[in-house]
Every structure is written in structure tokens, then in C-alpha cells.
Amino acid sequence: MFLLLDLPSIGSQVLRKAPASYTKIVVKGMTRAEMILKVVMAPHEPPVVFVDNYIKLLADGNPETFQKILDMKGLKRSEQSSMLELFRQRLPTPPSGADTGPSLSFSTPTPEQESSRIRRLEKLIKKRL
């Protein structure tokens, strides 16, 4: 990740920090990639725990994204269909009176919340090892 952060100044005669907006985009993208890897590497049994873990880590209510994660895990289509049904059942329900469009929107966590979640996840992973 550090190489990506230094990318704007590689080959430049002047050493300077990357713009804050660039750094923010890189950190956000790498954090999402890390969360995807954690979900893909997690065991899919029991299914409820796997689905809940996906919802907590990725905060993505899109069934197509969940389907891609299941494809990355190499699950058979028969296993995927039951997991997708469970995923749809476990999604948080929008507040009453809210627009119930086809896509769900989740609030973006603050950096403090994100790092706190990462630390808790790291502790859980260490406990399992």
C-alpha cells in the first residue's frame, strides 16, 4: 500500500507527500480489498455466520456483489442459491417510511469507526488461530 501512496511522486525530482484526496482514495480502496479478502478466506460454515460477517465487513446490500464473493470462494451453484436466500433474509430492513428502492444505501463509517472495526476483526482472527 505504501508504494501506491508514493506513486504520484515516483520519478519526480521534488519529494512531496501525495495529495490528501489521493491518499484517502488509496486507503479506502485498499481497506475494501482487505475486507473482501477476509470474507473470501473465512469459512462458509455455518452459513449464517458467513453472511453476517459479509454484511458487517463490506456493508454491501447488493446481491450481485455477494454472488461475486461466493464465486471467488468457489462454492457450487446449489450452495450459492441457499446462501443468497439467507443473505436476502439477513439484510437490515430500511426504516419505515423510507424509500424502498432496489438498492440499499449504508452510511459510510468514519475513519475511527473503520479502524475500530478492523482492530476487533484482527483480535477475532488471532483468537481463532
TrEMBL record:
The lineage of its organism: Eukaryota, Metazoa, Chordata, Craniata, Vertebrata. Residues 88-117 are annotated as: Disordered. It comes from Periophthalmus magnuspinnatus. One of its GO terms (cellular component) is cytosol. It holds the Pfam family VPS53_C. This is Vps53 C-terminal domain-containing protein. Residues 102-113 have a biased composition (Polar residues). InterPro entries: Vps53, Vps53_C, Vps53_C_sf. Coiled coil: none annotated. One of its GO terms (biological process) is retrograde transport, endosome to Golgi. Transmembrane segments: none annotated. Residues 4-75 form the Vps53 C-terminal domain.
